[in-house]
Amino acid sequence: MRPVAFEPVTPALIRELKEIVGDDAVVVREDIPEEYSHDEMAPVRGWPEVAVFPGNTDEVSRIMALAHGAGVPVTTRGAGTGLMGGATAVEGGILLVTTRMDRVLEVDEANMVARVQPGVVLLTFAEEMEERGFLYAPDPGEKSATIGGNVMTNAGGMRAIKYGVTRDHVRGMEVVLSDGHVLRLGGKVAKNASGYNLMHLMIGSEGTLGVVTEITVRLLPLPEVLTTLLVPFQSPTDAVGMVPILGKAGIIPQALEFFRDDVLDSSTDYLGRPFPHHGAPAYLMMRLEASSRQEMERFIDRAGRLCLEGGADDVLIADTAERQATLWDARGAFLEALGWTDIDECDVVVPRDAMAEMMLYSDEVSREVGLTFSSFGHAGDGNMHINILRGDLPEEEWIARRDRAMELLYARCASLGGMVSGEHGIGYSKRGYLREHTDPMELELMRRVKESFDPRGILNPGKIIPGMEAEGN
Ligand SMILES: Cc1cc2nc3c(=O)[nH]c(=O)nc-3n(C[C@H](O)[C@H](O)[C@H](O)COP(=O)(O)OP(=O)(O)OC[C@H]3O[C@@H](n4cnc5c(N)ncnc54)[C@H](O)[C@@H]3O)c2cc1C
């Protein structure tokens, strides 16, 4: 694969960028705040030479045409809440930040879709839609992320078990290609069999194929009744073993999360708020939705009975909004409570019935490498977040042990029929593992796709597939 040599950002290019977006929307290297040199967790660092904050599609298009002509790399960034170094400008160049493009352009109630700019914040958007009586179903844990970031990482989250991931809620998009060409893909239509689906290729491409400047998303009716069950178990394998049992019984919760007591304790300590149960080795937490109180009672009864038969200690019911918020707030704080600097995460996804085995194996690996793991996951999807904690190990020792742990975990995941990433993507941090566990022909096809969209290799170089970036990475 041809390595790409990039050009530096020159004073002339900075002047041209200012002409496009205005002086206030361009920040040059020494004035770029530190937070723009990394994303939320990955220890990957990279300083852009210039950060630009475009306000509309035309500006993005002109920036891309300029960068393409000059051979300067462009890394797109939403809110920077990614966990794999995806939004980090590892090759320098231009950081294109979408946060000024934050308008909801249209809510089309008849077609049940909304058109948004990429910098719209997930929380604000979901709340606004709820006020209008709609559910925007994708529900990743970090609500300050942008919809553009969610789309380009194909974010998963809590409601994926029932409603699918972000991909399942995108109907159309506008995307700026690497040379500045503006392309519309999909639309408001509910289905589409018109040739290769380039929109779905864009989704989850982590800024390596184009810059998304507008997204049309699907809206759903709001569920009538919601209740959350908190189910403590003595055995973590019994807890995750419930997932196929519930599914087979026709109980598809809106969310079905798994966690252990250590993660719960650090989260409740971090929030400083009481939690209704402590001390069980493992928990399932499920949010059920129903169209009436009677239907909900039937669901609770059935799910509760199955859990007790499956080894649960108890079934706690949270039926008021306030009680449910107490439970989900604690769940939402799991990652933050672990801290960002001394941690790395293995975000594997395995077939649901292999979760118990993966979990037991991760305990073995933790003992073998002598590192503490803190695990939780979207049990309903077989997606585990195995967080590897550094403790007080010196840098070299930490890296050696962490890498060994990752190797072992990804190898077992592959043998169980799993994938390297369930939802956090590949970015920069996990590309070696993608390479190791992907058929070389599949990687080659990915490279060819990248080359067709971005022949100069300027879009988010160094991410997902190694080979199009400068040598040495
Ligand atoms: C506490 C916490 C909990 C989380 N929980 C979840 C979870 O449950 N599920 C989940 O999937 N993720 C989760 N994440 C990860 C993260 O929030 C998601 O990956 C999110 O989708 C990133 O959005 P962002 O706006 O922050 O994007 P960024 O981090 O800024 O960017 C992510 C990637 O998308 C690209 N990108 C961003 N915007 C565009 C655009 N307009 N055009 C082209 N490329 C673009 C970037 O180049 C980068 O590769 C969590 C993160 C945290 C910190």
Question: Can you put this structure into words, describing what you see?
Answer:
The protein is of the alpha+beta class. Among the domains are: 118 residues, Uridine Diphospho-n-acetylenolpyruvylglucosamine Reductase, domain 3; 111 residues, 2-Layer Sandwich (Alpha-Beta Plaits); 98 residues, 2-Layer Sandwich (Alpha-Beta Plaits), CATH 3.30.70. It is 35% helix and 19% strand. The protein is built from 15 helices and 18 strands. The strands form 4 sheets. A 7-stranded antiparallel beta sheet has the order 15-12-14-13-17-18-16, sandwiched between helices. It has a 5-stranded antiparallel beta sheet with strand order 5-6-10-8-9. Strand 17 and strand 18 form a beta hairpin. It starts with 10 loop residues before the first helix and ends in a 20-residue tail after the last helix. 47% of the residues are buried. Flavin-adenine dinucleotide (FAD) binds next to strand 3, helix 4, strand 10 and helix 11. Flavin-adenine dinucleotide binds next to strand 3, helix 4, strand 10 and helix 11.
